[in-house]
Amino acid sequence: MIRFESDYTEGAHERIMNKMVATNRVQTSGYGVDEYCERARQYIRTACGNEAVDVHFLVGGTQTNMTVISSILRPHQGVIAAVTGHIAVHETGAIEATGHKILTLPSDDGKITAAQVQQLYEQHWNDATHEHITQPGMVYISQPTENGTIYSHAELEALYEICQQHDLPLYIDGARLGYALASPENDLTLERIAELCDVFYIGGTKVGALMGEAVVFVNDRLKKDFRYLIKQRGGMLAKGRILGIQFETLFEDGLYMEVSQHAVQQALRIRDAFAAQGFTFRYDSSTNQQFPIVSHEVLDKLRTKYSFSLWEKVDEQHSAIRFCTSWATQVQQVDELVNDIAQLEPVSSLTGR
Amino acid sequence: MIRFESDYTEGAHERIMNKMVATNRVQTSGYGVDEYCERARQYIRTACGNEAVDVHFLVGGTQTNMTVISSILRPHQGVIAAVTGHIAVHETGAIEATGHKILTLPSDDGKITAAQVQQLYEQHWNDATHEHITQPGMVYISQPTENGTIYSHAELEALYEICQQHDLPLYIDGARLGYALASPENDLTLERIAELCDVFYIGGTKVGALMGEAVVFVNDRLKKDFRYLIKQRGGMLAKGRILGIQFETLFEDGLYMEVSQHAVQQALRIRDAFAAQGFTFRYDSSTNQQFPIVSHEVLDKLRTKYSFSLWEKVDEQHSAIRFCTSWATQVQQVDELVNDIAQLEPVSSLTGR
Amino acid sequence: MIRFESDYTEGAHERIMNKMVATNRVQTSGYGVDEYCERARQYIRTACGNEAVDVHFLVGGTQTNMTVISSILRPHQGVIAAVTGHIAVHETGAIEATGHKILTLPSDDGKITAAQVQQLYEQHWNDATHEHITQPGMVYISQPTENGTIYSHAELEALYEICQQHDLPLYIDGARLGYALASPENDLTLERIAELCDVFYIGGTKVGALMGEAVVFVNDRLKKDFRYLIKQRGGMLAKGRILGIQFETLFEDGLYMEVSQHAVQQALRIRDAFAAQGFTFRYDSSTNQQFPIVSHEVLDKLRTKYSFSLWEKVDEQHSAIRFCTSWATQVQQVDELVNDIAQLEPVSSLTGR
Amino acid sequence: MIRFESDYTEGAHERIMNKMVATNRVQTSGYGVDEYCERARQYIRTACGNEAVDVHFLVGGTQTNMTVISSILRPHQGVIAAVTGHIAVHETGAIEATGHKILTLPSDDGKITAAQVQQLYEQHWNDATHEHITQPGMVYISQPTENGTIYSHAELEALYEICQQHDLPLYIDGARLGYALASPENDLTLERIAELCDVFYIGGTKVGALMGEAVVFVNDRLKKDFRYLIKQRGGMLAKGRILGIQFETLFEDGLYMEVSQHAVQQALRIRDAFAAQGFTFRYDSSTNQQFPIVSHEVLDKLRTKYSFSLWEKVDEQHSAIRFCTSWATQVQQVDELVNDIAQLEPVSSLTGR
């Protein structure tokens, strides 16, 4: 079985493993104030082109989201997100468990627009009984989205302008940020992202690390006391160095983007192979997740050799499936998949979506 | 600087690192249902002498405590703990952040007694307005305690009997459980512990792993849906295998106890060295943490070469300090410390505690 | 200005005020264990035809909803509700503030169906990663709904059957329960309601009392320790007698239904007056809230003399408005309104909804 | 049985009842923005000598405490309070249920000092691992305390100075504030209190109203969005007028102080009667609660005719008991009690406290 079901089926990039082994006996302080964390912070500040940002390392995405969001909102405030956002659907109510409602906006491709945020904001404040309604307190987006799509520079700029107008901090979940930056359709840089939001995180777990997410606070007002929050929400590792070593390795000489580019290239080969056979896609993704729509016959055939995710039923005969690539995806395994796709029957027509 | 300040100053035991490197490219499912986790679970079930226990892997101690405790209590219930308990003093209010009060019992050595629990229980239920008071809902203890002391078999048995009488689940925080089991004064086994509580955890972070704690649910009634809770509280690693590999290594052939015994032996050498010079101790510890009371002159002298924790001021001239050993403590570094201690002036008399 | 904007524009029914004045100097115990509360409980048990139910008095609807719901759910569970449900839209995130997500189902008229609950339930448990998703833990409905519509006997029976099959406690928000029971279209009784759910409340605030809601626990499993929860959530009045006196008065000789019938009769007169002129309605309500759709010219004309709620814009020229009646609605004021409606221009055609 | 067990055994002062009856049919807006609430707010602003304060009406004390405190703290912060404080012991963990730890300070008489707050503050910030400890975020005191004692002007001034130095908002629980102001030992005024804290509440429930507490925000920074919080925590009454009418009546022409003075005078008569017989007191109270220490024989004798609270066992033969007076306490009933006390045997000697 060749696994394309997710971008976390292996351990970590070998350079990370080597560094962890090489430094294993070095003695350091605990809780993320060691030299590795410090150097990793510095590399990330440089990569963001902003020496003033605060950088913290947490363990996983759900933990990062709940810690950041609950550190920003007051009790009566909620976080605006796409109805498909990870916090809204795949975190077992972690945000609500910290006391906050998620104010969902409709979205098919995983993105939300400045206009939608503006409308929700107006709707709230124009309501005569707005004190009976959860107040919008911040905005959450994912880059790339859970559907593999990405915000363009113009879209992000428009969104952030509205957020700033209404004093709604913008938080970007970058669990797969590298894959957005590596997309051929991307027109954003890490520096620009750090200018177009208040706080974001650079995902490690899904981009080559064993685990770990680097939170970057840009907005000074939100920085205060965040280490308390990390500790309270269970995200402060005693051996914090483990996170530092990984992000140091990912950012000291470009490994993060190298890994991301590799994964995206392989994903696009899979995309192109499906497209060549006439298959269509559930989302227009140019990142490391691809969502071809296949008949159930094709699905069963692919399943005999590959593991992938069943994404959603499209009609009685067809489903969207998800193929993921990562730092660890082997070119020859993609070769094999691409060859097998080339043997598939052209997709039967969909009963109109 | 030789570090004795904590038991998490290095990475992980080399056998763990080797296994992680060796398995790095193996593809597995995510979220803790991979083969490594399964094997680790089986080893732990066997070590506990109970095939029916549920075993889950979380990342750190605070996370484990808040996840377990909030999974057990109803909203109006609190958890009974020593006033010195980790949850009461060193977790930034993580338990309260899940909505629950900690009902603290006085303790000097870190332990609580069956009689104290009985008294608090009676006090609550005899109060005419008990509905205005947080209801005791479970009991938390640490083995060993934060002060290095351990519960004897008789003490634990007595405590658990009271807990069972009053339907108060007993939870043991075993962040350093190995060091209790390795103590020369210990008369408990892992099997017996698994019979004398409802849920406990076997600490990895402080006993040779990079990070990770293995929660063991003994009481059937408390097992339900715990994986949801792990996810909600941010403890479910995408690459859950990392925890499985570590616990598999620690439990497949006795490494956990081997590591623990080494640390305790070295700690007792330090203890004996201080005692030989006439120093007294803040707590009567036979585990990997030692708390000698030293004059501030001695303290300053030791500081030039060793790092350790300043525990608490005892009087104007003296403080208790903490030396920690671990799997990584090197015998020759302890030799050096022991020699240096032997040169210290006998402790000046304390202004009576 | 004649107010039809809500059912809480006046104080309490005069018989309640009289009783409160008459008993003002009687000395009682506090916190709801006085003789008035006891008698009120007994009247309600009798009205429900079930001597085994537990009855508690709380102050308001949001408080009651958050106290009941948070007493039932475990942390990883959410409450299923219509997207229009009061808890979902008009309680400033009170449910989320207790840690729980609201799992909303689409609804136009305010009701949800057994089939919808069944589907959401299946969707959850069929998801391979259901532990990453908030688990459905109970069902919330309102009778009548926020839109004035009511569940029929058959609908409620079907819903409760599904709930029982899946161990999902069913909770009915009866903020305006009397108005449902007084509807000419109603085929349920209080006794039958007490058989077709696990817990519900009989609203006082909007049905003749100064304030107060009577929670009725039918399901034994949910009864435990609810007084602790009332206290913790701020709902336990020191002078609990105030609630007891009111519910005693409402239930000792039929005042609750008398008041409800009066309000519904007056509401139906308003409905009929609008209908006679050809106006249509946003919802098909037979209870004390009526939602005619009027042109903005009509709206402005009515506004000069009456206060009512602007419910929602229907198209550029039309809006739905809400007229509420209550125990205090005066017949001659409705006469006046009815006469004025009869003078209105027949409604201009809607741009197709 | 003559009841002295609490200050909430009757309804409300007759002038309040009369006003409620007289205004019962007046139609108003809901949710506390009616004319009665507005006038009550204005009277309170005037009484506080500060036109800029924000005044809100809530229903009860626990609700007020949890709403105010959770509106001020960030998640990692706790509230400093006396170990005997109402929030620490008699609110079923309501504060913790909003996510916050109570940082208790030892206190025998119910008061805390500026020095204690200073010490706790220093202890926190001097701790090298302070991020692992709940951060002190505000200070809670009660005036009078739960033990009937009061802060002097000098004590409050000193406390507030420390609070301001460390940016710790000071919140005063004034559930019985009138009784402090009416004490012969009091040297504070409402105006001065409004200068020496950031937010406080003027209790109605225990001082003549049916229920209701008036929260006064002095500090501008804390005022924002408090109505959202009231709604979310269940404290916003639909018929908010009920609270407005009561506070209007209490503050329009001095009723609040009139009622308070009556209660304190009667309490002091009881105190003097016990003192005259040689009884001692558990606390040195000059307010409406008195805590004589009596032998169990005396206790049993008193019990045959009067109800009062059993406060705490003092030794095997003696207990402290509590007598409460209120607006409703009848002079002739106190006459009777005073006469009966005069017949009691002088108190037997206590086994040394």
In short:
By secondary structure, chain A is an alpha/beta fold. The first copy, chain A, folds into two domains: 2-6 and 256-342, Aspartate Aminotransferase, domain 1 (Alpha-Beta Complex); 14-254, Type I PLP-dependent aspartate aminotransferase-like (Major domain) (Aspartate Aminotransferase, domain 2). Chain A has helices at 14-22, 35-48, 61-72, 86-89, 94-97, 114-126, 153-165, 177-181, 190-193, 226-232, 241-252, 255-276, 296-303, 331-342, and strands at residues 2-3, 54-58, 77-82, 102-105, 135-142, 170-173, 199-203, 213-217, 289-290, 293-295, 306-307, 309-313, 318-324.
How would you describe this structure to a colleague?
- The structure is a homotetramer of 353-residue chains.
- Chain A is 39% helix and 16% strand.
- The first copy, chain A, folds into 2 domains: 2-6 and 256-342, Alpha-Beta Complex (Aspartate Aminotransferase, domain 1), CATH 3.90.1150.10; 14-254, 3-Layer(aba) Sandwich (Aspartate Aminotransferase, domain 2).
- The first copy, chain A, has 353 residues and is an alpha/beta fold.
- Chain A contains 14 helices and 13 strands.
- The first copy, chain A, is globular.
- Chain A has helices at residues 14-22, 35-48, 61-72, 86-89, 94-97, 114-126, 153-165, 177-181, 190-193, 226-232, 241-252, 255-276, 296-303, 331-342; strands at 2-3, 54-58, 77-82, 102-105, 135-142, 170-173, 199-203, 213-217, 289-290, 293-295, 306-307, 309-313, 318-324.
- In chain A, helix 1 (14-22) packs across helix 11.
- At the A-B interface, strand 1, helix 1, helix 3 and helix 10 of A face strand 1, helix 1, helix 3 and helix 10 of B.
